[in-house]
Each structure stands twice: as C-alpha cells, then as structure tokens.
Specification:
mainly alpha; globular; 15 helices; 77% helix; single chain
C-alpha cells in the first residue's frame, strides 16, 4: 500500500521545493509569470504531444471514455449552475471553478497512481484525451472571449485552434491514430522538453503557495469548498453509478473509472488561471485540498471496490 503513495510523494516534494524558492525569493518577483508562460506555451504542448502520441489507441477510445466524460460534465455543470446563476460569479471564475471540480490530474499523479493501484499506467489515457481534445479547446475559447472582450466567433476559433496546448494535443492524437512510428531523432528531443513540464509546473505552483493561506480569500471560500466537494465526493460517486448501472462495466473497470474520477484537480487548471488572470485563488486552493483529500478517498475506493 505504501507504493501507492509514491505519486503523492513525488508531487509533494516538487511543490515543497517551489515553496522554498518562493520563501527565499531565489528567482525574483517575475518567477511566477515567467514560469507560467514557459509551461503554457512550450513545455505543456510538448508533454501532451508525447503522452498522446505514445498512447494505446484501443485504450484511448475504450468504454472508460464515455463514463469519465459523463462524470466530469455532470460535476462541472453542477458548479456552473451554482456559481453562475446562484452566486453570480464572473465567467472567468466560473470556468476555472468548473475545471477545478471536474478536470483531474490524469498525468503526473494519475499515471503513477494508476500503475500502483490498478496495475497499468495506460488507464488515464482516455481521460487525458477527453480533457485535452474536448475540455481544453472549449475552455480556451471561453477564457479568450471573456478576458479579451472580443466576441467574434472566427477570431475566437482562430485563437483556439492556434493555442499551443490544443495544437500539441491534436498532433499527438493524429500520430497515435495513424500508427506513425516517429524516429528517435524526432521523439527524443520532444521527450526531453516534455520531461521538464511537470517539475516546472509543480515548482511554479509551490512558489504561488508561499505567503498564501488556504481558504484565506473570503470572497471565494464557497467556490473552493464547492469545487473540492464535487471533485472528491460527487464525481467518484457519479462515475461509480454510471459505470455500474448504465454501462454495466466489469468490476475492475468500475474501480478504474472511480479511481480516475477521484484523482485531484489538475495543476493545468492553475496554469490556465495564471495565464488568463482569473480564478487563481479557486484553482490554487482546490488543487491543494483535493491533492491531500483524495488520498483517503482513493485508498477507500480501492479497498471497497478492489
């Protein structure tokens, strides 16, 4: 069971290093925006390209995909209804909050935990595909329109299509689906840059934690609590119900979709919040709380369903 905590130890150490860097101010006042741009425009596109290009096509389009999609869309819709129509939050905060509730850390936490808890690192692939090719383009389009003030459909479409994260994801899927075997001279440089993404992103997140107090911003406490509750409790329950009673999945596949749904909020959500200057408090605090809170949820799900 201790091996299942390896992914959390790795992530926690990188975040701790970032917090220390923020505390001693080693990288200066511009560290956060510089690392944010580096991750968004360079490192993330390479990482997503490599992950999807090397993914198993059968696993990408398995029955795990629709169950994970329904569970994610359900909790994001719940957050949108409450945040937008009850609390009347601005569009940017609503989008970041919805992503905080429904977008899981399927890569740097999901892959190692899938390996240790489920026996294979391939299970997060459908969720990675869903988030990058469905959620990300829609998110980028809405955030672009909301923060730039431009409502032109063609302009928004052009900015979304040219988004480096979307481009990297689409190219990776095309390579996987086509079965193209890229030579090492192409993949190895891409992999080298991709390998820098997760540690830089986590260090950047750690820097942002210094001087901050979780649930310290009173104006967004309800948003954080709602997103965290939906992420840790509602999303795994919806995944279990849909997998069991709608798709009639085998017991092991039900466990897989529940574990995937119980993963913490993706650090990419914080990266998007930094990039567009909206919802940073919501994403930062939700990531922190779900990363800690998902440990007992995952272990409990594994014991009960496994």
């Amino acid at each position: 069971m201790l091996e299942s905590l390896t992914g959390f130890v790795v992530v926690g150490l990188a975040i701790l290093v970032g917090w220390i860097l923020g505390r001693i101010d080693l990288l200066g006042e511009h560290a956060r925006p510089v690392l944010s741009r580096l991750t968004f425009f360079v490192l993330s596109p390479f990482l997503l390209f490599v992950v999807l290009a090397e993914a198993d096509v059968k696993m990408l389009f398995s029955s795990l995909l629709p169950v994970s999609a329904i569970a994610a869309i359900a909790v994001m819709a719940m957050f949108v209804v409450v945040s937008r129509f009850v609390w009347h939050r601005p569009v940017g905060d609503v989008v970041i909050g919805a992503l905080s509730a429904g977008q899981v850390n399927s890569n740097n936490i999901g892959i190692p935990l899938s390996l240790y808890l489920l026996g294979s690192a391939a299970y997060p692939a459908p969720v990675i595909l869903l988030q990058l090719l469905a959620f990300t383009p829609v998110t980028m389009a809405i955030l672009d329109a909301a923060t730039s003030g431009r409502r032109s459909f063609l302009r928004t479409l052009g900015r979304t299509v040219s988004n480096p994260i979307v481009l990297g994801s689409v190219l990776g899927v095309l390579v996987a689906v086509s079965g193209l075997d890229l030579p090492p001279v192409v993949m190895e440089p891409a992999r080298l840059i991709a390998n820098a993404c997760v540690p830089v992103l986590l260090i950047s997140y750690g820097i942002s934690l210094y001087g901050q107090r979780v649930l310290g911003a009173s104006g967004r406490r309800r948003d954080v609590v709602l997103a965290t509750s939906l992420k840790l409790l509602v999303m795994p329950a919806v995944a279990w119900a849909i997998g069991r009673f709608v798709f009639d999945l085998p017991d092991h596949d039900v466990l897989v979709v529940v574990v995937l749904a119980a993963l913490p909020t993706a650090q990419n959500v914080f990266n998007y919040a930094q990039r567009y200057g909206v919802g940073e408090t919501i994403s930062r605090d939700t990531i922190f709380l779900t990363t800690i809170g998902c440990v007992p949820i995952l272990l409990l799900a594994t014991v009960i369903l496994g």
